[in-house]
Amino acid sequence: FGFVFQYGELLPELTIEENAALPLRLAGHSKRSAHAAAGEVLHRLGLGDLRERRPSQVSGGQSQRVAVARALVHQPAVVFADEPTGSLDSANADAVLKEFLGLARSQGTAVVLVTHDPAVAAQADIRYTMADGVLTPMEQA
Fold first, then answer.
1. Could you tell me what percent of the chain has a pLDDT over 70?
2. Taking the model in full, what pTM does it have?
3. Domain range holding 73?
4. What is the mean pLDDT of the chain?
5. Which residues of 40-75 are buried (b: 16+ CB within 10 A; e: fewer)?
């Protein structure tokens, strides 16, 4: 599984690259291979030049993209993402969605994404709404 929390939830004592590489390190990958994979995902999300910084040294939107990188670095079968684009500008939101959709369409990754943004929701293959605790399928276009 990969998880993207609404506010990133990075570990402050780790660098950006170490935060992104964490799932691979926990799975037993070498530091070198984990950091290489993390560097690739960070680069695709426009964060390659921030790899050695700490979370306190980057913006909220950058932290959110690091959290996305951390969720995707190990190419999970399922990703749960809570408002992953909420603190991003449109260009960075598009880059994040491109990563999610790329994994979903090329590798069959299931992406369960919560959003209040209709433009983000419109890109999903299957959509639901929730009101008063009831999940209802939306008509598909």
1. 99
2. 0.91
3. 2-137
4. 94
5. ebbebbebeebbeebbeebeebbbbbbbbbbbbbbe
